[in-house]
Amino acid sequence: MLDLTLRDLEYVDVVERERNFTRAAEQIPMAQPALSQAIRRVERRLGVELFSRTSRHVEPTLAGRVLASHARQILHDVQRAVADAQVAGGNRTLSVHVTEPSLRIPRQVLAAVRRDVPSAAIHQTTLPHRFVPDKLRAGELSLSIGNRITGPDVTSVLLCHEPVVVVMAAHHPLAACETATIAQLAEYPLVSIDDTMSTWNQFVEHMLVRENLVPLWTSSSSFGAAAGADLVADGRSLLVCLASVGDEQPSDRVSRPLRPAQQVGWFLSWRTATGELPLIRKVLAAAVRFHGRGVSHCTAE
What we know:
By secondary structure, the protein is an alpha/beta fold. It is built from 11 helices and 12 strands. Strands 3, 4, 5, 6, 7, 10, 11 and 12 form an 8-stranded mixed sheet that branches. A two-stranded antiparallel ribbon has the order 1-2. It has a two-stranded parallel sheet with strand order 8-9. α2 crosses α3. The longest helix has 27 residues, at 62-88.
């Protein structure tokens, strides 16, 4: 039997992704010469060349791409097996991704879970949205609260809908109106939310494009909606956000509902295979029940 370890497979995976030994070594982390020697040892054991090397570039051979592809799947399977075994065996630590932790709905969901399942140790994190599906499937995340996650091996359930509003300075021209139309949004700069962390800009842009309108974004962007409200102080910019954000603004800002009314869904997502583990089932039940407790702005489907 070939003597390849999980560490060997990790080395091949990272080098194939980075195409550079120095960057790959920083990712692991380890010294670059040690990583290069480790890859050479793997190649000798297999009797094939995995990477074609030049002074400036590292290119995987066909054998290297095949092994890296299998290595990623094996590493993911091992990680999932460990995570599932820990939960099934009594480890109560759960990692939960929240799209924006400062918003009211995820705070209330997690409060419901902590109240109903006090034995669960919730570790809250926020990741760039593109990483969330793979980390759920790999077992690095137990749950996600925010956007719907689609694709194989992941289940999502709608928790509730929340209305969309627009926040502006109290002296903004639209502040005198009871509602703001989507057409009016296109007349002013819209606060841009960092699109590495959220798909919110895509939602807003799609809302305008449906009306054959093009958004004008602010030159500055914000990490999230709560901080983004500061950018409306110029009296021109608008922040499209959720109703719970609009409720928490100081007296020099106002929020107005949109016409026609808009809303977004809050989803709870998890890896399908973990849904039958006792602890995960309790947490899911607590999270799904929360919207029946009179939560402000949150309406069930």
